[in-house]
Amino acid sequence: DKKEWFQLVNETTLTQDGRLIKIGANINTPKDVHTVLSNGGEAIGLFRTEFLYMGRKELPSEEEQFEAYKEVLIKMDEKPVIIRTLDIGGDKGLSYLQFPSEINPFLGFRAIRICLQEQMIFRTQLRALLRASAYGNLKIMFPMIATLTEFQEAKNILEEEKDKLKLAGIHFSEKIEIGMMIETPSSALMADHFAKEADFFSIGTNDLIQFTMAADRMNEKVEYLYQPYHPAILRFIKMIVDAAKKEGIWVGMCGEMAEDERMIPILIGLGVQGISMNVHSILRARSLIKKLNRVEMQALSERLLNLTTGEKVIEELEQSIKIN
Ligand code: PEP
Ligand code: MG
């Protein structure tokens, strides 16, 4: 219950057999940080920066962005803060940045695709991030990466902005980790190669499920296909985690699946090291994880990977774990 959960506010998150799992929060604005801390968040696992760009008439300036990122980093006091670069397009539009309308916006001009073409926008954000990095433990994450070339281009642009700041004598952290969302099937399939280029992965199941099942996440008619428990999704998660482990990089999840009580045991079993979620789900997740045995969850997830349908996965889960 809630009272029991709040006793866990200042605790780390350990499974029953002592495996450390990091629980972070997904936030949209710097104002959210207060509730992250009061709800026991150990990190910001996903700062969706597009919200700084929404509900206004023009692009936010470098200075405005710098102040926002700096505020989050200072308030988090050296705890990890993963800031994702602009993920606009798909379901999130900007009134002042209109591109030709598209038949398939989720498959269209969005996120890193816009940033690599409209580099003024991207570079402004990267400079703001670099300057803010001096104030805390910043990690930068790129969204919707589909190819290695995109990831390399994004990193090259970041390096160019670092060089410019150095020349100008502007201070930034030399230790910023650069990671990526794994939310396209191509990046999941190529995760072994990406793991050599990235410092960390964060699995974005909201998009990964819709692209894997070819079912628009906003379309009710095909909702029955949007199946987080489908073995195809579990197999992808396993591939991604195994690729990350092989190269020794950190792997977390920030899609909505990460806060699902039935899913958390599977994620622990598959070896996900961190989960990031809505702030109000953090303590419930911590309380659940304390009751889980990692070795048992590993055996359970091995069984689930070999089932044939999402329904069978749910059935097996319900028989194996009694969540109270
Ligand atoms: C995701 O796709 O799982 C994700 C976390 O990103 P968003 O929901 O912002 O697309
Ligand atoms: Mg996404």
From TrEMBL:
Tell me its cofactors.
Answer: Mg(2+)
Query: Which cell locations does it reside in?
Result: Cytoplasm
Q: What's an example Gene Ontology biological process for this entry?
A: phosphoenolpyruvate-dependent sugar phosphotransferase system
GO molecular function (one): metal ion binding
Q: What is its EC number?
A: 2.7.3.9
Keyword terms of this UniProt record: Coiled coil, Cytoplasm, Kinase, Magnesium, Metal-binding, Phosphotransferase system, Sugar transport, Transferase, Transport
Q: Where is the PEP-utilising enzyme C-terminal domain?
A: 3-293
Its top-level enzyme class, in one word, is transferase
- Role summary: General (non sugar-specific) component of the phosphoenolpyruvate-dependent sugar phosphotransferase system (sugar PTS). This major carbohydrate active-transport system catalyzes the phosphorylation of incoming sugar substrates concomitantly with their translocation across the cell membrane. Enzyme I transfers the phosphoryl group from phosphoenolpyruvate (PEP) to the phosphoryl carrier protein (HPr).
Sequence similarity = Belongs to the PEP-utilizing enzyme family.
Protein name, entry field:
Phosphoenolpyruvate-protein phosphotransferase
Q: To which species is this protein native?
A: Oikeobacillus pervagus
Q: Which lineage do the record's taxonomy fields give for this organism?
A: Bacteria, Bacillati, Bacillota, Bacilli, Bacillales
Which residues of the parent protein does this chain contain? 250 to 573 of 573
